[in-house]
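EI: anyone free to look at a 389-residue chain?
SC: sure, send it
EI:
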Amino acid sequence: MGDPNEAVITVEDGMARIDAAAWDACANPPGRSYNPFVTHRFLLALERSGAVSGATGWLPRHLVLRGADGTVAGCVPAYVKSHSLGEYVFDHGWADAYERAGGRYYPKLQVSVPFTPVTGPRLLVPTVPDADRRRQLLAAGLTKLTGQAKLSSAHITFIAAEDRAVLESMGFLMRQDQQFHWTNEGFASFDDFLAALQSRKRKTLRKERQQAVADGVTIEWVTGSDIREEHWDAFFAFYMDTGSRKWGRPYLNRDFFSLVSEAMKEDILLVMCKRAGRYIAGALNFIGSDTLFGRYWGAIEHHPFLHFETCYYQAIEFAIARGLKRVEAGAQGEHKLARGYLPHATWSAHYIADPGFAEAVSAYLAREREHVEEMRTVLCEYSPFRQDT
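SC: here you go
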């Protein structure tokens, strides 16, 4: 990059204004685990579909770090937000408290992959000797943008370890939460995985799998060039039905699924359930280099344990078949523990412009981290795995 003093950060109002190859060279450089959600094509599909826009309360304000020669040296997916929906790191209480005290919490700056609670890089830089210095410049750019745009705060959610170290060293407030992930301990088959469980848990899982398909349900994996528009038509009906009941207003529209499929179908796994000749349920997953990421589930018929089968057990089978190391099954869900998904820490970083409010949030986060760690310790005691494994 040359002299850091000659580096320039620009703010771009959409992914279409940023060269895709330059972005991806920072987001997924050689030698790192491939994360599909920070790719230019995934973020562009969100914007092209209209799911991410000023009209939906996600105004793109991406940071691009350029060296003295104009080449892209780093970037950040960032959005000015007028609400806190679709983030999965909940700060509604902070907003209420600040506004009761006379402040204005919105708009705020959000650094994340919209609607995607998946840990990954956020301060995107290539693998270079001065990578941490570039991350520092990008983090400083976020605080500067927060001040210039008169925003209350900047929030960087589901951060990777390398980002966490830099942000913490720069005084960002750290917040801890947890998700439930399945780890492939070299299993050759689903039966190998079952053998690692306690006998009672093993019997329960087998019974759930049998009951899930007892009414004549068949399940298929659809990926790559086999994915067709009729699959998306069916899945979108599932997504809308479940999303409308679960959180009131689904975030994604039908166009997004076609656009993302066109752009990156080799990274997509649809687990589709069929009964009596029609699709009745399905789960959407994205495939990384070593991880399967479960994202959305929906159904128009409801059968006992079909959700567990489609989202959790089929994901494990696919990961074993592909030799993937992990399955990340999304946010929340202690019910995943009994199905072999153990608690793993997730982290976010927060910059609060108001010093007094920052002090109050910092005190709250210290207490919250203690609670999260205590809960994770307790949950691990209920692991379904045999003690000798």
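EI: The chain has two domains: 4-178+344-380, 185-324.
SC: 👍
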